[in-house]
Amino acid sequence: MKLRSLVLAAAVATAALSSALVAPAAHAQAKEQFFPVLVYRTGAYAPNGVPFANGYIDYLKLTNERGGINGVKVSFEECETGYATDRGVECYERLKNANGGATVFQPLSTGITFALTEKAPIDKIPLITAGYGRSESADGGVFKWNFPLAGTYWVAADILIQHLAKKEGGFDKLKGKKIALVYHDSPFGKEPIPVLQERAAMHGFQLSLLPVTHPGVEQKATWLQIRRDRPDYVLNWGWGVMNSTALKEAQATGFPRDRMYGVWWAGAEPDVKDVGAGAAGYSAITMQHGAEPNSDVVKEILQKVHGKGMGTGPRDEVGQVLYMRGLISAMFAVEGVRAAQEKFGKGKVMTGEQARWGYENLNLTQAKLDSLGFKGVMRPISTSCTDHMGAAWARIHTWNGSKWEFSSDWYQADEQILKPMVRAAADKYAAEKKLTRRAPSDCQS
Amino acid sequence: MAFFLEALFGGLMAGMLYSLVALGFVLIFKASGVFNFAQGAMVLFAALAMARFSEWIPGWLGLEGRLIGNILAFIMAAALMFVLAWLIERLVLRHLVNQEGVTLLMATLGITYFLDGLGQTIFGSDIYQINVGMPKDPIFLFEGVFEGGVLINLEDVYAACIAALLVLMLSLFFQKTGTGRALRAVADDHQAAQSIGIPLNRIWVIVWFVAGITALVAGIIWGSKMGVQFSLTTVALRALPVIILGGLTSVPGAIIGGLIIGVGEKLSEVYLGPYVGGGIEIWFAYMLALVFLLFRPQGLFGEKIIDRV
Amino acid sequence: MFYRENGQFKTSYRNDQQIFPIAQDRWVILAIVAFAAIGVPLLADEYLFRAILIPFLILSLAAIGVNILVGYCGQISLGSGAFMAVGAYMAYNTYVRIEGMPLIPALLMGGFFATLVGVVFGIPSLRVKGLYLAVATLAAQFFCDWAFLRIGWFTNNTASGSVSVSNLSVMGWVINTPAEKYLFCLAFVVVFALLAKNLVRSAIGREWMAIRDMDVAAAVIGIRPMYAKLSAFAVSSFIIGVAGGLWGFIHLSSWEPAAFSIDRSFQLLFMVIIGGMGSIMGSFFGAAFIVVLPIFLNQFLPWAGSLVGLSVSTAAVSHTEFMIFGALIVWFLIVEPHGLAKLWSIAKQKLRIWPFPH
To answer: Are A215 and B126 a contacting pair at CB < 8 A?
Structure first.
């Protein structure tokens, strides 16, 4: 009896308390630039999400140590999404007006990106999806608020084919070859298929598509099929546990790892660490940067952030591939705000709309990148009203059993092929949504 | 032909691994009538314990050899599973005696969430290694007869042997020991067993502990194959068709069912999959189990369901 | 003292058969609905709408559907996520492919196709029972997961497989702001809850409950099991399909099959069990519990940690959320296996004789 009434009272109290705690307090004009950080430190994709999050936050801390963005300090708050779309949407709703208003969101998940692409324009908050998201969002004429900076999946697929052609000795030598795509069965995994099919039609190689169901721990049948078909190359488009499983299965079926190429989300330490020497020879495309333990920015972080005990993750993670990815994504976020301050007022806190202008007019020259500590790591990025990607460069790096080493020169994606595809896909999106392409006059705002 | 043999063999091996997980389900259902949805979480928890202990123990005790470290880690992980079994019986099962099946099912789902959170809190969310010396490279047989040979994965063969050994030990335990007899009595009829003096609570702790050891062995084998990480809980979903095909109350059913599901899955994926774009493994296994169920609603070896009006 | 029925006499059969025979009940329900329709849009802010109220409404609609199948008819189903997916995708296809299709018929068509799928996957229930059926319905879940990823027609042949809708409007009223979306969902939920409540009080509802309690005895007295079970699947899938359509169109606006994965099925089953099986009111309680608890924990735990001087990382908060969630479910099941609705009915019983203890 008593227990029951206690339970009832507790339930009622919980309900009351929750409604009190959940309504966020409205903040007055903040003096700090607020960056929400959507992370996943739990779940099937945590091994890859954690270093990215640590890199992102370390760079924000470094920015504060460097004096902020023209004096404006940076504030941030983490929100755990677990790679789930509805949790990502809840984090977005909770943080978009917090601490003076969110500057930019970087969901690190193609699913969450699709959902936020609908909401961000209404709330006037830009989305940076550096190296993921919809490939057609590079077309700024339709996707005003999306910024797939430094590369999209179509760029990655295109450059991988270029690299394979170079290995074979020319595009004509690709004729008759077999290329298998082992991909995560989700929008993320399906992204490269249009470009690969286009290239297959152009050069005459055979493309076979092998989907792997989330989370990707069961690939035995996939690799048995690969053993039967004996493709010349296997492209691995996975994320999280799927990558190390692919390498283990490749080892178990005897497929040579040096004929496997991963996307830039399948070429980091967590993917190969526990396979170790068994993964030696596996290569992956990089979104310009690889593992950069000797770069200037890493040295600065070790000194100014980890040196003061403010490091977000373990020290030996600094400089790893996904850590650098997070670092660079944060750098984009910060530099866009800096660019916006040039127009809207130095030393002032930028709104989401103003930051969007900044991301659209980002002009990171090599000198600027070097001064930020990215010498030898990044190439210049320059966005415009119609081009929200800014750069289409990549390199290939290979795992030698203990670390990642660059194994190719710089490649650039073939705009002749990609530009019409991007435009067509963007037009299709616009027609479906009944949007009109932005007028040139809109670009100046 | 060679490829068919490879796919068949791969399917049989995969099936044995599923049976390992299914065994845990069957054991608990037989003895306590609870459909333990937390088995996947137990596999993960046990594997995490094993992986982390085998990493930490050499550091704590300053050992050199991997073998000693692994054995100690196994003992510690088994002890942890015993504590877990005791806690589950004490805190959950004892209070839910006589409730409907669905309530118990939901309770085990609650335990799943709890174990997921606890495991990741104590041991972490990264991918961890279990290194018990399994060979990673394949061997090729019959290279003279078939071009390229038939691929045999030694790790899978070892896993299958270990699984068979485990089943043998469990059968011996159930048939020959006093505790095993008591377990079978409880599985038959709780009230009758209690009336002749068998302590139900202790039996349940033992049964959950044995299921925990099964989960530990399954976790070691799966973890050695694919690394220990949160997504290991999804293997429980792969084992469910095995149970319903074999029957919820039958240990040989778990084995035979596992083999059928394993072979069915792999053969369907490699032969039917390409026609429909691939990725059909999981639902094909369930459909296969469903078809069998339509002919034998209690599974191949399960107890016939008797309804009294 | 206040909740007494004396003086309330029924003078017609119609009055006697009301859903809420006690006048106080009627007034309170009307007050709640009025507050929900008028008061909440005035008081709630955007976050409350988007993150709590709209998911709560849509998931409680789905929970009503699941409750009809699991709670009233006794067929345990783990495929509810798949039926939501069918509802969402078929509503999308109807909306996008047929020029000028209004929104509400599109959603209802989604429900209709979910009905068809539900009946097909309900056929095993004629042969299989109990836990075997629960696992058999997982076949529906995984099959639909696969179908919506692989068969391009469902996603209008987009390359990525992700679909989105926008510019929703009902007869000229554009549904844009969170408050409007909330009212749209509220309308659906009120209508469907009323229909469901009346359905379970009717002959077919009694047939379902007879099948649940003792299906062999029910067959003996002349209730056709096939008709009862398949109609339960049909009605339940219809409601779940409409809820799925609402989830995709109103809450997410852009979704992929992973939004309706097996976790969603488990979540719906949790709502039904925690809320109370066999109770329409219980579906609402369960949905509120499941929707609000994670968000509450997310805010509460760092605050509680700061009180004792601990800084709690997001990962730790997430893990603790899981642990507390699991522990709470077990605790609720131990304390009240019949769910929150039973607690509520006990409270009402106490209220009837208040201020006297017995």
So the answer is: no
